[in-house]
Amino acid sequence: MQKKIKKVIIGLSGGVDSSVAAKLLKDQGYDLTAVFMQNWDDTTGLLDGDCHWEDDWNFAQLVAKQLDIPISKLDLSAEYSKRIVNYMFEEYEKGRTPNPDILCNREIKFDAFIDAVKDLKADAIATGHYCGTEYDSSTNEFKLITGIDTNKDQSYFLSQLNQEQLSKALFPLVDIEKPKVRELAKEFNLPTSNKKDSQGLCFIGKVDLPTFLKQQLIPRPGKVIEIDFETGLRIHSEKVFNNLDDKCSNYSINENDGKVVGQHQGVQFYTIGQRKGLNLGGFPKPLYILNIDNAKNIIYVGQGENHPLLHRIGLKIKNEDVHWIRESKKLKVSEEKEFLVRFRHRQNLEKAKLMQKEDFLYIVFEKEQKGISPGQFAAWYEGRECCGSGEIY
Fold it and tell me: Where do the domains of the chain lie, and which CATH numbers do they carry?
């Protein structure tokens, strides 16, 4: 049974979204307390050389003062470094493409944060995310619902939350579009009304990724091998007619399939689908990274966004990495069902069939998809409900 919410803690980030969320909750009569999370203060690799948490903290205090609500600062930088940054380094070291923002929500905003403020005995934790929850009384479960603003919807980033976390979550912006949030901020005369949205990694900002990763990852130069279109077409055709597991796996490319066209600084600094950063010129069409061989430290590239090896029909997720938000939605072994799927934020939802097998959950798309990379998260939807997600194998 869903309990009545009276006391709410708002995660006030110093941005316009959480500021408007706080104002709306205040006007709705909730007993509101604001908490600002400081999770990072290292400027290494930041593109503007500045860590913004101090400015954000000042804005958060100004908003809290105007709304006449108490505010405190919570330092979770040790947990963030341990759970998120270390995860990033480990994944990139393996030649995979992690998504720290998804883990940040699961591990920090809705775990370490909730644990740290439990003594305040709040009924709910509110944020300025563009998504929402709905309670299903028939199953006694909470649904994760997409925000009405499809361009800003952040359900993908929260697709790893569990029932306990969702039961404590409150999202006031679920049915408000971003332009309206800006209008409300000006109408409410909030100090953040003209503040730009934060960009880049969760709590860190815009970074030069190779510089950031070189804090812990040592460069290890290796070969860049180009696979021409015709060879790529042959390898692609062989996979299409193979079994389900092969269809949903990375392409198997041999270094003899192509020619060496340059050198990279280490596979850990690159990702499948990447176009910039290789510093290789003189080709008729832009080079895209087609595949990464971590064991041999080889990057395979091809010319043009229509290269056959840049596209795949499916992906797979190890069962232990599959997360269903609601147990009632979980597929049984040998069960199949159609969902809408994305594996990047703001990517259009694509029709796909999910097939649950003994060891893996397989996702086969109606149309081939570009740039699927191990380590990314795929999330699946029914209508406005995000039903689950998992880390691509």
Answer: 7-213 (3.40.50.620), 222-241+252-302 (2.30.30), 311-391 (2.40.30.10)
